[in-house]
Amino acid sequence: MLTPPFVLHRPKSVEEACAIAAHLASEGRPFDWVAGGTDLLPNYKWHLNPKGDVISLAHVDGADALASDRIGCMARLHDVATSEVVHPLLAAAAAKVASSLIRRSATIGGNLCLDTRCFWYNQSEDWRRSIEWCHKADCGTGADCRVIPNQNTLCVATYQGDMAAAFMALGAEVELVGPNGERRMPLEDFFELDGMKKNVLQPGEFLLSVHLSEDATSRVGAYHKLRVRETWDFPEAGIAASWIPGDAGSLRVASTGLESIPGLHADLVDAHEDWTEKEGRKRLSKALQKAIKPVNNTVLPPRYRRSMVSVLASRALRAIMQED
Amino acid sequence: MSGGYRQQPGGAGGGVRKDGKRVAGKLRFTPPGAGGSRPVSDPRNLDGIPESVGGNEPQPAGHHVHDRLRTGTTVGQATALVDANAKITGQAWYGDDVRLPNEIIGRILRSPHHYARIRSIDTSAAEAMPGVLAVATGEDAPKTFGVLPVTKDEHAMAVEKVRHVGDLVACVAAVDEATAMEALGAIVVDYEELDPEFDPRKGLEDVDEPIHWRGKYHVGRTNVQKRVHQAFGDRSNIENAAASSRRAWRFEGVHHGFTEPHAVVAHWDANGRLQLYTPQQVPHYTHRALATVLDVPMHQINVIRTFVGGGFGGKSDPFPHEMCAAILARKSGRPVRITFDREEVYWINRGRHPSYIEVKLDADEDGRVAGLDVDALIDGGAFASFGHVTSYYNGVLATAPYELGSFHYTGARVWTNKPASGAMRGHGAVNTRCAVEVGLDDIAEQLAVDPIDLRLANLLPPHSRTISGFRITSNGMREALRRVREESGWDQKFRNMPLGKGIGIGCGFFISGSGLPIHWDPNRFPHATVHIQVDMDGGVTVHTGAADIGQGSTTAVAQVVSEVLALPLDMIHVRSHESDTSPVDLGSYSSRVTFMNCNAAIRAAMEIRESLLNAAWDMLGYHPTTLVMVDRRIVYKHDPSVGVSYLQALHKAQEDKGALIARGAYRSPPMGGVHKGAAAGLAPAYSFSAYVAEVDVDVETGLVKCTRVWAAHDCGKALNPLAVEGQIIGSCHMGLGQVLSERMTYGRTGHLQNANLLQYQIPSVHEMPHVTPIIVESSDPEGPFGAKEAGEGPLLPILPAVCNAVYDAIGVRPSSLPLSPDVVWGDIQKRMKSEGVEDPLDLESPRLTHGPLQEKLASRAEEHYGRDHARQRTEDTSPYVNGVLFGFDPTRPIDEQLEGWAAIDDPDPESMAEMGYAGRAWLKQEQRHMEGDD
Predict the structure, then answer these.
(1) What's the angle, vertex CA B499, arms to CA B498 and CA B500, rounded to 5?
(2) Helix, strand, coil in percent for chain A, rounding step 5
(3) For residue A186, is the peptide bond before it cis, meaning its omega torsion is within 30 degrees of 0?
(4) Do A230 and B767 touch (CB under 8 A)?
(5) Is residue A247 a contact partner of residue A257, using CB atoms and an 8 Å limit?
(6) Is B598 left (phi over 0), alpha (psi -120 to 50) or beta?
(7) In chain B, which segments carry CATH 3.90.1170.50?
(8) A4 part of contact set with chain B, CB < 8 Å
(9) What is the dihedral of CA B160, B166, B172, B175, to 10 degrees?
(10) Which residue from B678, B682, B681 is spatially nearest to B668, judged by alpha carbons?
């Protein structure tokens, strides 16, 4: 299996990165950003939408910042998992990502911008040829979606990053940098419901860092991840929750690994202010389960994953109340 | 004894300066004959010499014919594998490490269709591309091959039809991989798609276009490749069953998951001989198949087995890509290397068959197993591979270790348009064993007895015959069960733990080498041959064809030679890589290597030993019967100060002859019955095992975690306890994969959805329980120093042990594998629904109150303990056949004693169809019986 050849650009600063991106855009050369490469390069090896140019953020000055209020896109998951300055929820979620080997390379930015996954998509070229391609990588054929046939407008590949749910639960904001300057937004607004588009990043724009407010430090959080093996596996479902102890209205609950994007469930949480009681907690968990609709494109069947939402949610809620 | 031997003598203190340094030219040479790196002989290690010949090694199972050859050198001692250094330092050369000058890269074009007829292939554009040196298609090698001579249904590349996605269509050799890939894209194939079949159950129906056509032996127009029927015993035993368990199981296909993908390098040398480098478990069958397909005599082919990065049965077929490399190399005149991607590894497959297995067990009021009925429909995929054998193994390997009142087996293997299934560790026995052992647990529950006591009261003794005529020699089943029961604290834990925690038992029975070779040989070729050569330097070169696939066969051979000749392991050099220099060995399958190859090695070493002892007789004047081999010396038994060194004896023995050369061979003794399929499952010895597993089940999510395993395996005699423990723990890991998470997932379109190591979920170190290996030594009378297999048998019990532990934990009895969390969760939901329980945490754990039968079984088990002990130590040599427990006289043939007891040869198709899916295969007739009836 050969990785398709590409030109690797290694800017030293944000400005240089933007300049390279602008230059490539002006020449009409499609490119990808790469951070740790643990997601992008395996996909390249499988010839999943490879580009001729790749801009590495590895050497961008300050991109690996790791502080309680700001985490750079190049911060390694291993460093986050073992850090004493970041929020314990982030460290715990990072420690559950993939394997120790991968965490040494994989980054916060890469994890947030993870490509969506689908067992009709994450396959070799020969394999995908034998199903006559799919909507997400149609090789110019206009192929149909293989998960839900007869619809080739939306890609339903599943977002299986762990960190997004934890960040959302803490109310994190992301800082994007691109040709039109910087912008900041809550992480939940960063994602866009389409397995191909995935997020709001414009051409030439990249995620530079994640910011956490003062509020986050007083939060107590928990992340529960469903997977068959305690290493390697992507989340088949993941629920993160946090609150400021004593303030039931401060609860934030986010899910990942279930749909094309991770989601913050603010409305549901607002409707269940009695979640600190056992019955209320149960109702909230069930309501979350009802609101989430996974499809059949990961290892475990969607019906089961959906049922696990309430189990994971009630466990996460119990955990943040620090009850057993 | 003379002081020097072509070297300066090193007297006490001689040649050493006052400051302790040695004087130049006055080196302190070791005494003559001291081969190896140690300067002086080690004293005899009496702990490594059996009691029967005066040593300290206890022999609870009695003495062994090889005891007199024991020198206490390496046998029975934990020994690092002799190739360990090569592997851990990265010097071992695996398939893809071979680099020949001028080599080029081969790639294979694979079918994108499940089932299609090839109308035409146009390779002209690919051939015209610069950098492309050869292109080949099925036309270049029209001859069929297959590992079994009775079912040769494979081609190097598709001829006429492709039969699964990934089937080989054409291949290209080019200067580099990128060019080869590009050339594959330029090959134009015109396919006519045919209707594919993925469901083995539908394979029993007539179709327009069966996947293969067997002519007059074809069963109707179905996709049945092989059907099997066996019946023994007295069916009337089951009419008044006190307990009955019938379960229909679904087992997913699993893959070996070895680390090294297939890789091959082919090179036609200057003399026009083919040199083929391949990581093969069974180089000899590859050798035969290459000769057939390439149309060259075998002596013009040298098969070089590289180091094998794991095989587990997945590298034991002759493979089409090996033919492709040879064809491309012949066409291009350059060495050609082909290395698989992981996905290609899954497409060539040969993993365990996906199976539908139905097992019915009946027990009478005495707690005896009155009937065992097995029906196994196995999904063979697109080719026969080892399937002919697998079809039998799925039934016949369930006929022990329990004494059965009757045994009924219907089996069928069907072709489907999926990658071919084949042999995998525990070949054919694993799935049925799981179903049988879970069934026994069910029976025990119904009878209100302890499942271990139920087993202990129904075991066949050592030196007995099974219901289908297998000859059991040594049998450590009883000891294995007793030891796991004790060490696991079974009696305190079973049916006594809180919800979500459980403990379970499972047993295993496996062949130690298949009694008949795959290639029927009228010339009575031995199964294993070993050559030993010793020249004046004292190093011992052992030539064997046995393929070390990581299981340690090279070490085992080196150990037995070292033991017989009392030489340190570093003086034994095993050469096993090339067919040019290795004697024919049938290969590493059916757990035969230690048993057969070490027996052959012992025989060869005995010849060398005799030459050395005779030479020492010449020199010392003492008869060989009074001489003892100690570490690199031969001494007089009654006065060890009288002796000669090994080198002195060797040089004496070499006088006028040169190097000592010896040959040893092994062929299994004639045995078994005469019924159809009697040879399947015959082995010169059988291994037995009993495991207890403890699990934690998360009742809310269905996640099962195996936390502890006590694993007792009877390997006869552990030549190398370290390697045996490694095999036991490794087997646990592999078996846990099948029971917990591994499955080859075929999606709704029939595609293999998880042809990668991320989604094909092999357990990680986190899923690995703490395993306590328990070695049981029953000393097999025919095994080398008493040894039997330890490579495959240890895998069997872990599956049912975990399944039974899951029942103990949550009161749900599985009937499909793997026990992935969604399946277990679904079962828990069903139980909650049926019991009207809202919260899974409110479920009750199963509990056991012993019924009246318990005491009866316990006392029978105690009685049998004495019986087995006497038989094991050959204090009791009376014949014993399956059926004695049911009141038969073992000295007379059973079928003479009771009318109902017989082998049923003439099956009634209608009644067999009731058995299950496989039974229905008998509703069709073979083509040869269909002539003239419309």
Answers:
(1) 110
(2) 35, 20, 45
(3) no
(4) yes
(5) no
(6) alpha
(7) 95-194+261-308+315-348
(8) no
(9) 180
(10) B682
- The β-bridge partners of B630 are B633
**Strand, helix or coil at B478?**
helix
* Chain B residue with minimum CA distance to A128: B112
Q: Show residues of chain A in contact with B178, CB under 8 Å.
A: 2
Q: Cβ distance B774 to B487 under 8 Å?
A: yes
Q: With contact defined as beta carbons under 8 Å apart, do A56 and A63 qualify?
A: no
Residue carrying structure tokens 């992507």: A234
CB of A279 less than 8 A from some CB of B: no
For residue B58, pLDDT over 90 is answered with yes
Measured between alpha carbons, how far is B868 from B864 in angstroms, rounded to an integer?
6
Closest CA in chain A for residue B818: A228
The answer to whether A148 faces chain B, any CB pair under 8 Å, is no
Distance CA B712, CA B191 (A): 54
Cα-Cα-Cα-Cα dihedral of B553, B557, B559, B564, to 10°?
A: 160
Q: Do B819 and B703 contact (CB within 8 A), yes or no?
A: no
- Which of A46, A100, A228 to probe by mutation at the B interface, max B CB count within 10 Å? A228
B339 to chain A, closest Cα gap in Å: 9
Q: Is B190 on the interface with A (CB under 8 A)?
A: no
Instruction: Give the tens place of pLDDT for each residue, B271-327.
Output: 999 999 999 999 999 999 999 999 999 999 999 999 999 999 999 999 999 999 999
Pick the CATH number of B95-194+261-308+315-348 from 3.40.190.170, 1.10.260.40, 3.90.1170.50, 3.40.50.300: 3.90.1170.50
Q: Got the DSSP string for B359-383?
A: EEEEE-TTS-EEEEEEEEEEEEETS
CATH 3.30.365.10 segments of chain B? 67-92+517-666
Q: How many CB atoms lie within 10 A of CB B58?
A: 10
Q: Is B166 on the interface with A (CB under 8 A)?
A: yes
The span from the CA of A225 to the CA of B712, in Å, is 36
Cβ-contact B649, B616 below 8 angstroms: yes
Which residues share a beta bridge with B359?
B247, B374
Smallest Cβ–Cβ distance between B753 and the set A119, A228, A300 belongs to A119
Name residue B217's amino acid.
Y
List, by residue range, all CATH 3.30.43.10 domains of chain A: 1-60
Under CATH, what is the fold of the domain B67-92+517-666? Aldehyde Oxidoreductase; domain 4 (3.30.365)
- Compute the distance between CA of residue A109 and CA of residue B844 in angstroms, rounded to an integer: 47
> Angle at Cα A221 formed by Cα A220 and Cα A223, nearest 5°?
165
How sure is the predictor about B184, in pLDDT bands with cuts at 50, 70 and 90? very high
Model confidence pLDDT, tens digit, residues B397-428: 999 999 999 999 999 999 999 999 999 999 99
Give the CATH architecture of domain A1-60.
2-Layer Sandwich (3.30)
d(CA B610, CA B591): 30
Q: Is the confidence metric ipTM above 0.85 for this complex?
A: yes
pLDDT, tens digit (0-9, with 9 covering 90-100), for B339-398: 999 999 999 999 999 999 999 999 999 999 999 999 999 999 999 999 999 999 999 999
Contact call for residues A203 and A173 (beta carbons, < 8 A): no
Question: What is the CATH architecture assignment of A218-320?
Answer: 2-Layer Sandwich (3.30)
By CB neighbour count within 10 A (0-12 exposed, 13-18 middle, 19+ buried), where does A222 fall?
buried
- Alpha carbon separation from B281 to B84, B318, B549 (Å, rounded): 18, 10, 6
Query: What are the residues whose beta carbons fall under 8 Å from the beta carbon of A295, sequence distance 6 or more?
Result: A147, A148, A156, A158, A302
Residue of B106, B105, B139, B107 lying closest to B122 (CA atoms):
B139
Instruction: Tell me which residue of A141, A108, A134 sits closest to A119, measured CA to CA.
Output: A134
